[in-house]
Amino acid sequence: MSSRQAADPRELTSDAASEPSFSLRETWELIGRFWRFVRPYRSKFILGIALLLFAVPLGQFALFLTRDVTNRALLATNLTADERWGTVLRIVALQTAFWLASAILSTWREVLEWYCSMRSTFDLRLAFYRHLHRLPLSFLSRRSPGEHLFRATGDMVSMFRVAGRAPVPTASGQAPQDSKEVAIATYSNDVDPYDPGMMGLITRTTPMIVETIYALAWGVALLFLIDPVLSALLVAYIVPFTLFSRRAFDRIRLTAFSVKARTEYESGVLRDSIAGLRTLKAFGRLGYQRSKYQSAATATRRRGIQQAFQMVFAQNVLQMGMKWAFSALIYTYLAWRVMTGRATIGDWVATFLLVESAQAPLENLVQLLQLVKMQLVPGKRILETLDEKATLEDRPGAPKMGVMRGEIRFQNVHFSYEEGRPALRGVDLVVHPGEFVGIVGPSGAGKSSLVSLLLRLHAADSGYVRVDGHDVREVQLQGLLDQVGTVPQLTYLYSGTIADNVLFGNPWATDDDVALALELSGVMEFAAKFPDSVDTEIGEGGSLSGGERQRIGIARALVRRPKILILDEATASLDPRTEDAVLRSIDGLREKMTILSIAHRLKAVVGCDRIVVMHEGRIVQVGTHRELVEADGLYRNLWIEQSREAAVGGRA
Fold first, then answer.
1. Cα 479 versus chain centre, distance
2. Which Gene Ontology molecular-function terms are recorded (predicted)?
3. Among 461, 483, 492, 591, which one is least packed by beta carbons within 10 Å?
């Protein structure tokens, strides 16, 4: 979720929630950036526009022919009944052909638009998801996971939706050609993800804007054939209608963004209430959280009511009022024309049909333009993520990593997460194949930064990180990671069985590989207490202890048959007894692979072949546990301090 979740909903004013303005040039540039996702389907998109250009005039001609039905048949009293009836049948047949052709073309256009919208949105979602995984952790950590999730979901849909509208019969009993309307919708799950959003803006909204302007142009032209004054009146009506409606819907748009901000905040409070329920109960803050959620929900409801009122006013008062005023003007003018013999009853009927068909798209045009404005902001947020430079991409022609021996070499490595705040300062370190090396030091010493560079989660500012002599930045990343196993401080478990979570490390592992990993990690010891053993459903691991979760993490790493095993504070969150059991499991692996053990508690690295001590981004000591304890230095001080704390804890 966005940073607004941390704010008081009372502070989320409409100004704070409003979107930045975009110039016409910026708008076209933004739409052009997303066009690349439509480009593979451009032939269908262009065909849809072509169908539109044929369908609109056919529908307008059908309405215009109503004038001939009235003048040449209904009012032609000089003809016999059979002659008049024959004229009616011929004209109605022609109208039917026009309407049928227009309907078929419009249907095919709809199908093509939906196809382009669905395919391009699907491509955009996949591109966003793939790119997100290639981004540096520094970018991902600057925002909460909820915000990245919202960009991948909520920002892909729109605040508007194209809704079906029941056809309103005209004076002749016919429905106007355009039976769509645009309605404002808040961000919700009932919005089709393959219609709105940036891709729908291009594939659905743009053709609708073209259709609206094109239909208005035809309406003005056909009215000109009846009476030039009528076409002038329609043009004159368009200007104030557009200006006043635009002003009203600008306010609605700002309110809609305010509703969005409050909805995000409310969702954040709800998420925290569920995720932190244990803490809320332990601190006796259920009442406080209920009050906080009620306040957030109330603020959302108030803004929603304001938005609904503004929408009703804009559509039912402003637009409908202007429509009625215009209709009254046309009605009065045509009545005068007919009564003075300057126009026929057929002109009267055709005019009202054409005006009715022109007013519906005109009402939509203002809201469609608002849709463009509203969707540019989430579109820009999507591009902000897509424009972030990926750090996990392989260079063109990068060689595949062969079977590794497990040698790791850091050569004069400098690295900073932020400019001016170095995390590593000229680190030189060689880890030999099959060696068990511990890396220790105070918080912020740079221990985890070494691992991040090795796994290419970040890139060194200068210097080299090599595996078996290969610069990790110059080889295919997947081939490198496939031979590395990592056990983090907190093992994340996915919904499924114990075996499923182990196989996450290598879905293609053989039964023998799985059995060996389960045995070496000690998973079988605790899995035996469950009736279904490793086939037990554990959800997200809520029923398991910390030690059991870590054992699954170790098994997940071992099932990969790694050449390098990285333990990143793997036992930091465990109690001493569980930590001893996990360390025994790890100790049994030291002959099979190169092991890097990053630890804050020195107990975890006592048995290492070598221990590297880091402080403020530099290596300050290297040696065995005995050597380092006997020498003056940081390691000895840390050992004495932790031993004293353990003794105090034991007496307690």
1. 29
2. ABC-type transporter activity; ATP binding; ATP hydrolysis activity; ATPase-coupled lipid transmembrane transporter activity
3. 591
pLDDT of residue 71: 79
Q: Is 551 within the bounds of a domain?
A: no
> Between the CA of residue 370 and those of 159, 334, 367, 504, what are the distances in Å?
10, 34, 5, 46
List Cα–Cα distances, 511 to 481, 483, 503, 528, in angstroms.
22, 19, 10, 18
Write down the pLDDT at residue 147. Answer: 66
Q: Find the CATH number of the domain harbouring 343.
A: 1.20.1560.10
The 3-class secondary structure across 32-59, one letter per residue, is HHHHHHHHHHHHHHHHHHHHHHHHHHHH
Q: Residue 402 — very low, low, confident or very high, per pLDDT cuts 50/70/90?
A: confident
pLDDT at 168: 36
Phi, psi of 485 (to 5 degrees): -115, 135
8 A C-beta contact, residue 370 and residue 364: no
> How many CB atoms within 10 Å of residue 508?
7
- Backbone phi and psi for residue 427, each to the nearest 5 degrees, phi listed first: -80, 130
What is the predicted pLDDT for the residue at 619? 93
User: What per-residue confidence (pLDDT) applies to 407?
Assistant: 93
Give the integer Cα–Cα distance in Å for 353 and 346. 11
Give the residue with greater pLDDT, 411 vs 146: 411
Cα–Cα distance for residue pair 436/126, rounded to 1 Å? 40
The domain in which residue 304 lies consists of 3-34+114-386
Angle made by CA atoms 362, 363, 368, in degrees to the nearest 5:
90
Yes or no: say if 3 and 142 are a contact pair by the CB < 8 Å rule.
Answer: no
The beta strands (E) that lie in 152-211 are given as: 160-164, 180-184
377 C-beta neighbours (distance < 10 Å), count: 19
How far from chain centre, in Å, is Cα 402?
37
pLDDT digits (tens, 9 = 90+) for 136-169: 766 766 666 666 666 776 667 654 444 443 333 3
- Confirm if 172 and 353 have CB atoms less than 8 A apart: yes
Tokens of 464: 């080299």
Overall domain count for the chain: 1
Query: 220 and 372 in contact (C-beta within 8 Å)?
Result: no
Give the contacts of 587 (CB within 8 A, at least 6 positions apart).
Answer: 607
C-alpha to C-alpha distance for 351 and 341, rounded to whole angstroms: 16
**Is the model's pTM score more than 0.90?**
no
Which residue has 């704070």 as its token pair? 16
> Which residues are within 8 A (CB) of 291 and not within 5 positions of it... i.e. 6 or more apart?
none
User: Is the residue at 322 inside a domain?
Assistant: yes
Residue 192, pLDDT > 80, answer: no
Q: Do residues 563 and 593 touch, judged by C-beta distance below 8 A?
A: yes
Per-residue pLDDT of 426-445, as tens digits, reads 999 999 998 999 999 988 88
Domain membership flag for residue 552:
no
d(CA 481, CA 296): 44
Residue 576 CB contacts under 8 Å (≥ 6 apart), including other chains = none
d(CA 8, CA 12): 7
Decide: 172 and 208 in contact? Cβ < 8 Å.
Answer: no
* 413, 427 contact by CB (below 8 A): yes
C-alpha distances out from residue 181 to 20, 184, 213, 359, 571, Å: 26, 10, 15, 11, 60
CA 618/CA 424 separation, integer angstroms:
6
Q: Let me know if residue 467 belongs to a domain.
A: no
Contact 457, 137 (CB under 8 A): yes
Tokens of 518: 């389960």
Q: Which pLDDT belongs to residue 86?
A: 86
Q: Is it the case that residue 174 has pLDDT exceeding 50?
A: no
CB 386 within 8 A of CB 106: no
